[in-house]
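Sample entry (166 residues):
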Amino acid sequence: MADEQNMDACRLNRFSSDRRGLRSPNNAEEGQALVLAIGLCALALVTISVVMAVSAVNMKARQLLAVADGAVVAAVDEFDFVAVGGAPKIQLTTSQVRHGVERYVADIKASNRIDNLDIRSIHILPGGQGAELVLAGSVDPPIVGWIVPSGIPIEVTASAQTVLSR
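Predicted structure, serialized as tokens:
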């Protein structure tokens, strides 16, 4: 019976020491979950910031492309008729197209929606019946805009052609 009491005492001591070990402030793994949670939150915030910035750049690029498409279509309507061998032919010049693009951009007030809007280049397509336009601008992405204070540059190309038909 003394042996049984000793065994019970040993079990009780082992149980109470295990319980004290779990609650001890000297436990090496205490606080690790907090560091992990903070790290995961930081990673989530960075991911959200990057996704928002990429979305903003994509949206502005699409908006700039819509402006470029409309401008080049409006500009190729600024053509002259010329007679080549008795047949009428459309003839575009760079100055006509530039004037048409500038008027379209001013009419829709595109510079209010797109920062640093610039007409980079205008090329007349072979045959003189169409044009290619390159517009540029910049985007200030949300949240991470302080990283690139001058904005992220965007550039789009659009082309249009006028065809005579009967």
